[in-house]
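Hi everyone,

Forwarding the result from last night's run.
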Amino acid sequence: MEKDQSKESRLTGRQAYEAMGEPKTILAPMVDHSELAWRILSRRYGAQLCFTPMFHARLFVTDPKYRARMWSTMDGDSKVDRPLVVQFCANDPEYLLKAAKLVEDKCDAIDLNLGCPQGIARKGNYGAFLMEKWDLIHKLIRTLHDNLSIPVTAKIRIYDDWEKSLDYAKMVLDAGAQFITIHGRTREMKGQATGLANWKILKYLRDNLPSDQVFFANGNILYPNDLQRCERETTCDAVMSAEGNLYNPGVFWTESEDKDKQFARVDVMLREYFEIVKQCEGHASRSAMKPHFFKLLHAFLNVHKELRPEIGKTSVHASFDEWEAIVKRVESLVAQIYEQPDIEELDVIVDGPIESWGGSYKKVPYWRCQPYFRTVDGEKQNTRLLKVAGEKELVKSSSTSLENGKRTIDEESADQGNVKRRAVIEENREEQ
């Protein structure tokens, strides 16, 4: 009887969204990167709703050690970690339900990952590699919807075929998903083939789904002003960011145009994050620390290359004193930058021209948090032709001549041309 009552009182759809405070900015689920410490940091910089990393449902149920690594008593704490959506990948409804039941009282919704495009998802038969198995997806979602006291949600990717994308979204909603997050890229668009998410498809889906459907958009968020542009162009309820947040938590800051919030100094952000990690319980926040150091400092390390091997050789299990030395080293180097007599002229954010996809790239000083652009065939993504999901044409950047008063991107790229490929390879290797 209690189970039936809990289901009857369960908030659904728009009611559940309103109960969460109608969040507009959402931290995406990122494997090993949206853990507790990062969620706390992101909330401080404007994330109003956070997703956990993707948890493997079967392992979460059957392996106590895995569950202890992924989840601590602080996760889902009402004082520091709500509202919260816990995401699982799964291909077995029974294991998915058992996993969800373990955290049902510590979160606001359970999300099914249908968007992971990585090889491990192909091998494990989950994430975006369920996109050909609609019957299984329907059963996974329906099982949660019929048995949980909290809402079930789903995060999906699109097909190049707009109508198939719409049918897919409708099926997910018919199964019982109360919110739907749609990433405007296809399953094939990942890594160096990432390209641009298609907001036109997102708008089409939004327009052709029920008008009261809670709809989150994901893709192409580089800077804080992209959030409002995405919301306006897609008419979504909220905007999710993954990689944009990962390299700059300030991407969610929309309260003001404060560059110290939107593009924080790396020494300030690193210190704040490090202090949070020291206060967090459990394994996940500590094990993610080194990858987060690399990502927060990615532009800084292209100039201060001597720090890269120092961070790389320091174990995640090393004492906090060893990591403190790295943080202090960064603080010292940035302090020297601000001793320059012309620092006010150097420390500026410069907007580039409006691109054909509607936004613009910014020139951000290397000592401030900023987006990361992959190098593909020796050329940065923000200076090359980009494929748009669901379209045949490539979109060309016009930012190769963007100036910051001192140097252009072309000049900076020339200076760093010898280390681009090596830096990407080393960063990927050191983060493992």
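Confidence is low (pLDDT under 50) at residues 1-5, 399-432.

Cheers,
N.
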